[in-house]
Design goal:
A hairpin with a 5-residue loop joins strand 12 and strand 13. The chain has 2 domains: 139 residues, Rossmann fold; 163 residues, Lactate dehydrogenase/glycoside hydrolase, family 4, C-terminal (L-2-Hydroxyisocaproate Dehydrogenase, Chain A, domain 2, Alpha-Beta Complex). It starts with a strand and ends with a helix. By secondary structure, it is α/β, with parallel strands linked by helices. It contains 10 helices and 14 strands. The strands form 4 sheets. The protein has a 6-stranded parallel beta sheet with strand order 3-2-1-4-5-6, sandwiched between helices. The protein has a 3-stranded antiparallel beta sheet with strand order 7-10-11, with helices on one face. It has a 3-stranded antiparallel beta sheet with strand order 12-13-14. Bound molecules: adenosine-5-diphosphoribose (APR). Adenosine-5-diphosphoribose binds next to helix 1 and helix 4.
């Protein structure tokens, strides 16, 4: 039996636990700092088991012994964005939380693959990699799958075609400087550049960039969680079942795309070892510049975090 521990039993974490149970591929442990919260949510979900016909268990805990021997750990612990807040505003608070969680993961689940979800995402991946000392293939961030699913939806709605025919690729940091790639975005193999005007593509790209912010503005309290949890589940499934999906993830680059020592969203093959391979695309000058700009802003935030740590 595979075991997945989800740290942070809030909106994103608990929903990811629910979706994973529905997939019937692993036992789930929810961990949270709030007493009773992970236990209560896990109990509620387990009461649904006879009706939903779950094959696996879900339990909740406040202490980290519960995550021992996890195959996969998902980190969602932290504060979500509030209206008017950028993902970077969350940096100081969430770096502390994620750093403390990473210490526990290193101790209790030293062989796990880790998917980081807490924002600002790419910087939090650096925190986890540094604190755990795990190899780069075992620490990745969830962003590109979410950004791409939003782009897919907007394209499908615009063209009036079925969602499953649309394949989209969004690279870069998980923030306002993400890099949607229309050239690699198609409807059943037809590039969208042949189906939509540049003006329309620009509008859909802009909406994709602001997709998370649009939801924060509507919810007032908290940020998106159904689509993020679905995106995490897509990645968990690829890793747990070793099905080697090609998905965009925040991965640690060491020379690919002429970027070094930085986490940024790129296409990668996901399997049982985590990031099995980063796929390097031949980008145009403009696409590469946008990816580098995105990576630079991640690097700046990492430097900010290094300073905070030192202070
Ligand atoms: N250890 C464990 N859990 C913690 C800790 C900690 N040190 N600090 C906070 N938490 C828990 C909170 O108690 C809460 O239950 O993390 C959970 C976060 O859940 P929500 O507040 O509902 O936030 P959510 O919407 O799930 O977003 C979590 O994912 O998408 C990102 O930007 C989002 O960074 C945010 C994260």
């Amino acid at each position: 039996m595979k075991k997945v521990s989800i740290i942070g039993a809030g909106h994103v974490g608990a929903t990811a636990g629910l979706y994973l149970l529905e997939k019937r591929i692993a036992n789930v442990v929810l961990v949270d700092i709030v007493e009773g919260l992970p236990q209560g949510k896990a109990m509620d979900l387990s009461h649904a088991a006879p009706l939903r016909k779950y094959l696996h268990t879900i339990t909740g805990a406040n202490d980290y012994e519960a995550i021992a021997d996890s195959d996969l750990v998902v980190i969602t612990a932290g504060l979500p964005r509030r209206p008017g807040m950028s993902r970077s505003d969350l940096l100081a608070t969430n770096a502390k939380i994620v750093g403390s969680v990473a210490e526990q993961v290193k101790t209790y689940a030293p062989d796990a693959v880790v998917i980081v979800v807490t924002n600002p995402l790419d910087v939090m991946c650096h925190v986890v990699k540094e604190v755990t000392g795990f190899p780069k293939n075992r620490v990745m961030g969830m962003a590109g799958v979410l950004d791409s699913t939003r782009f897919r939806l907007f394209i499908a709605q615009e063209l009036g075609v079925h969602l499953s025919d649309v394949v989209a690729l969004v690279l870069g940091g998980h923030g306002d400087d993400m890099v949607p790639l229309p050239r690699y975005t198609s409807v059943s193999g037809i590039p969208i550049t042949e189906l939509l005007s540049q003006e329309t593509i620009d509008r859909l790209v802009a909406r994709t960039r602001k997709g998370g912010g649009e939801i924060v503005g509507l919810l007032k309290e908290g940020s998106a969680f159904y689509a993020p949890a679905s995106s995490i589940t897509e990645m968990m499934e690829a890793i747990l079942l070793n099905i080697r999906r090609n998905l965009p993830v925040s991965a640690y680059l060491e020379g690919e795309y002429d970027l070094k020592d930085v986490y940024v969203g790129v296409p990668a093959v996901l399997g049982q070892n985590g990031v099995e391979k980063v796929i390097e695309l031949a980008l145009t000058y403009d696409e590469k510049s946008a990816l580098h700009a995105s990576a630079n802003s991640v690097a700046k935030s990492v430097a900010q975090w290094e300073e905070m740590k030192g202070a």
